[in-house]
Design a protein that fits this description.
Elements (H helix, E strand, L loop, with lengths): L9 E6 L2 E7 L4 E4 L16 H10 L8 H7 L7 H8 L8 E5 L6 H4 L8 H9 L28 E6 L2 E7 L2 H17 L6 E6 L2 E7 L6 E5 H7 L10 H9 L1 H14 L10 E5 L2 E5 L17 E2 L4 E2 H11 L1 H17 L3 H10 L2 H15 L2
Antiparallel strand pairs: 1-2, 1-4, 2-3, 5-6, 6-8, 7-8, 9-10, 10-11, 12-13
Length: about 375
């Protein structure tokens, strides 16, 4: 299949129907129209590199399961991040940014994934890798319409529209799905917003299913974007991105630490938490998600990514350096402890996890209650 050659080289990056900037893929130039609407991850840049960075951070990972099959199903030959973004309009279920030709008459109402149908064939390929029902000789070209090309993570997954809204379906091991399900209930006892997961058999595979939280009103700024804005690769509790979170939502942010300590979540990486945007404005911690790496038998000596310390050291740190805010959430921790001593809730936990895991978790809860 021959590489595509585009007649035009001038494109807009838009926020809904507002032009944010114009870029030229041949001249490698950028012209900013609206500085206030520039995505946070590239807000401190003014050269063509900002487009390269935006597209690179947005695209599916090369180690994503079925990445090759997804690209084949879309008929993409030139697999550069910018080309993929142009072909897919950079549409995402993360926010309201998209890319179009300078000469395109398309509107946000016509293209946004929240209100318009997207490809079920590409979704099936993303979840199963099955190319049997895809005609590879039929190049999709500028008709690519999917959120799979901007769906982060390495697991096989896909988006589907249901009668109750848009859901994310992820192929996982049974134990991981059980973790996804029970952590939702644990988060409720701790009084922190969290995505609810259910088990479902999809195309013969064990999958977790959750409804997406984003919409045209609500968006997500991942921690990775905060790090890009502050030009740092460090995830430490004294770094600027961390301190910014403490300014925006200290209670929610510290509750995330507590929940991750209780469950020993080993995968709270820079893409697995973020800030909730309300009509483009930073509002609070984004509802927690992706808990398949909880209860994997790790110890409190393991590294907790957001602080750059071990779980045990992180607990000492927040008690010492954030005493006021920690005291603000002690009532919720006490409520969690009481809730998990109720037989009904013990039985609920034991539907998904072992009695040994319950005892270990409650020991960690006891450590949280100590001065």
């Amino acid at each position: 299949m021959a590489d595509r050659e585009f007649l035009e080289s001038e494109y807009y990056l838009k926020y809904k129907d507002e032009i944010v900037l114009q870029f030229d893929t041949k001249l490698k130039t950028v012209c900013v129209f609206n500085h206030e609407l520039i995505p946070l991850s590239i807000k401190n840049r003014r050269d063509y590199g900002m487009i390269i960075s935006f597209c690179s951070d947005r695209m599916l990972m090369t180690n994503r399961e079925y990445c090759k099959e997804i690209l084949l199903s879309c008929g993409i030959d030139d697999q550069s991040d910018i080309n993929i973004c142009i072909l897919s309009r950079a549409l995402s279920f993360r926010d309201n940014y998209w890319i179009c030709s300078k000469y395109s008459a398309e509107t946000w109402e016509e293209v946004n994934l929240y209100e318009n149908e997207f490809s079920l064939k590409i979704a099936d390929v993303a979840l199963t890798g099955n190319l049997q029902d895809v005609d590879l000789n039929d190049a999709v070209g500028d008709r690519i319409y999917t959120g799979e090309l901007t769906n982060k993570g390495i697991r096989a997954k896909c988006f589907l529209r249901t009668s109750k809204g848009i859901v994310l379906i992820k192929y996982e091991k049974i134990k991981e799905i059980m973790s996804e399900i029970i952590v939702y209930y644990l988060a409720r006892f701790l009084n922190i917003p969290c995505s609810r997961y259910i088990y479902s058999k999809v195309n013969g595979r064990d999958c977790s299913v959750c409804q997406i939280k984003t919409s045209e009103t609500l968006g997500l700024v991942p921690y990775r974007d905060m790090m890009s804005y502050y030009d740092t690769n460090l995830m430490t509790y004294d770094g600027l991105p961390y301190l910014k979170y403490m300014q925006i939502d200290p209670v929610g942010f510290l509750k995330m630490h507590v929940l991750d300590y209780i469950t020993l979540n080993t995968d709270r990486n820079r893409d697995n938490f973020g800030i909730l945007l309300w009509n483009g404005k930073m509002h609070s911690l984004y509802p927690l998600f992706d808990h398949d790496s909880c209860f994997k038998g790790k110890s409190t000596r393991g590294l907790y990514f957001p602080t750059g310390l071990s779980y045990a050291e992180s607990l000492k740190m927040i008690k010492k350096d954030y005493t006021y805010w920690y005291n603000c959430i002690r009532a919720d921790i006490e409520n969690f402890q009481k809730s998990m001593l109720v037989q009904e809730n013990i039985d609920l936990f034991l539907k998904y996890k072992s009695y040994e895991e319950y005892c270990d978790m409650m020991n960690r809860v006891g450590e949280l209650m100590q001065p």
